[in-house]
Amino acid sequence: MISSHCLQLKHTLSVLACSVWISVAIAKPGPHPPFETTGVVTANHDGDTLKLQTADRGLLVVRLSAADTPETGQAYWRAARGHLRQLVSGKQTTVWCYKRDRNEREVCHVKVDTQDVSEALIRQGYAWYAHMFGNEFSPEQREVYAQVEKDARAQRLRLWSDPDPMPPWECRKLRKAHQKCR
């Protein structure tokens, strides 16, 4: 026979577990108090997402804030992934995170030493400037990102050597509609 104390404890634990599950289930992506941390990149699945091992926050999945690289399978996606790896591999990487996206990734400005990683990807023709999120950047950042993309286009670097490269946001839209993208 189970004592009333045990039943009460079981009920309390059930209520606690349920409330934790509900708070996780209704958590929405979006802005949160910004934070800065430093760590070492352990992996990068593609050209604009990385995993950062930190001492104070554990393992973070980070989405670069200003660069949008080709989607998996698009032209230059492997090159963008490789270039990101080259920029961050084995280096102390600092992130300033300010929101979570719909995939629960931290959206962050990423730097290695003083180099803005998004700017470097855009400048070298591996990424588009994610202008649709321009309101999240300072006026100076918006100007720099737009200018380095314009320069990469003019020089026909990497993805800009294609006469009409498909932006990744258009590819995502097509894939969501179960269509292929190039």
- Given as residue ranges, the uncertain stretches (5+ residues, pLDDT < 50) are 9-27
Largest sheet: 5 strands, mixed, barrel
> What name is given to the CATH topology?
OB fold (Dihydrolipoamide Acetyltransferase, E2P)
H-E order: HEEEEHEEEHEHH
Helix content: 25-40%
In percent, how much strand structure appears in the residues?
A: 25-35%
Strand sequence of the main sheet, in spatial order? 1-2-3-6-5
Q: Can you name the CATH architecture?
A: Beta Barrel
Number of strands: 8
Write down the Rg: 21 Å
How much is the average pLDDT?
A: 87
Q: What is the CATH first-level class name?
A: Mainly Beta
3D shape: globular
From the N-terminal CA to the C-terminal CA, the straight-line distance is 66 Å
Number of domains: 1
Your description of this structure?
The protein has about 180 residues and is α+β, with helices and mostly antiparallel strands. It contains 5 helices and 8 strands. It has a single domain, classed as Beta Barrel (OB fold (Dihydrolipoamide Acetyltransferase, E2P)). Helix content is about 35%, strand content about 25%. Strand 5 and strand 6 (about 105-110) form a beta hairpin. Helix 3 runs parallel beside helix 4. The model is unreliable at about 10-25 (pLDDT under 50).
